[in-house]
Amino acid sequence: MDSGQGSSEIEPETLFGPANFPASNQEQYIFYDFEIPQMLVGRLIGRKGAFINKIKAATDATVIVHPHKNRKLKLCSVEGTKQQIELTAGVVVEVRVSAVVSGGELWVQQPLHPSYSALHRLQTCMNLNYGDGSNTPPLPGPISDGTVCVAHINDHWMRCQVLSSINAMSVVLLLDIGGTVTVPSSSLRQIRYDYMTLPFQASQCFLHGVQPVTGDMWSDTATSVMEELVSGVILFAVVVSYTEDYVPLINLYRRDKDQFVLLNEKLVELDHAQWISPQHSS
């Protein structure tokens, strides 16, 4: 079976491995710092420290909240191995939205996560390896749903997962930026083993406590407004609960000067969403 490299020898500049991704060492002790709004500190710590102690007990990582020069912020430090920190990353994190599916569904990346900095290197390696695609054969058929592979999209090779294939076209999920696209099945290529060592960088999430104004479908206007609200800024995501499929339901905050705006609430204020129930947490 072809490995997706196009020849029996792997060219050094296309190789992606531990040397290019130091954070892959699970025992490497690292520090992960992020700012947190003062209003959220109580939720992070919990009553008499219950929640933060639960995090420490479950992960064995150290979590410390420090003063910040801005009185409306605190600095949260998480210390431990990469594996320990991954278990706490979903509590309160700085994120950037990489794809807006609708007014209430987003895909986010964590720019401060230890693995994120290696994504650019991975992209470069894949672009060099696959080139224009002519040096590697298509993904063998029939293509099974769930297959992880690479696709050539917007002049870049991207890691993706096949959701469905019919009539020579495939719907794929973009694993590092989120969202789905439809591509010719012939444009898909096998993914090389070393290109699977980096964790997938995009996480799906839904806004907590809000729903479309009418029906079950978000309006195009709500989606456009959400795109404007999240474009080009670092945001704060707080996981509140999960769906039955374990997709995070989040409160999403945007920092505007010295104010922190809850985007869930902002969407309601702009009449592009409504609260699921009168009782909601901000």
TrEMBL record:
Residues 1-20 are annotated as: Disordered. InterPro entries: KH_dom, KH_dom_type_1, KH_dom_type_1_sf, SNase_OB-fold_sf, Tudor, Tudor_domain_containing. It comes from the Eukaryota. GO terms for cellular component: mitochondrion. Keywords: Kinase, RNA-binding, Transferase. Residues 142-198 form the Tudor domain. GO terms for biological process: regulation of gene expression. It holds the Pfam family TUDOR. SUPFAM superfamilies: Eukaryotic type KH-domain (KH-domain type I), Tudor/PWWP/MBT. Transmembrane segments: none annotated. One of its GO terms (molecular function) is kinase activity. PANTHER family: A-KINASE ANCHORING PROTEIN 1, TUDOR DOMAIN CONTAINING PROTEIN. This is A-kinase anchor protein 1, mitochondrial. It comes from Portunus trituberculatus. The gene is AKAP1.
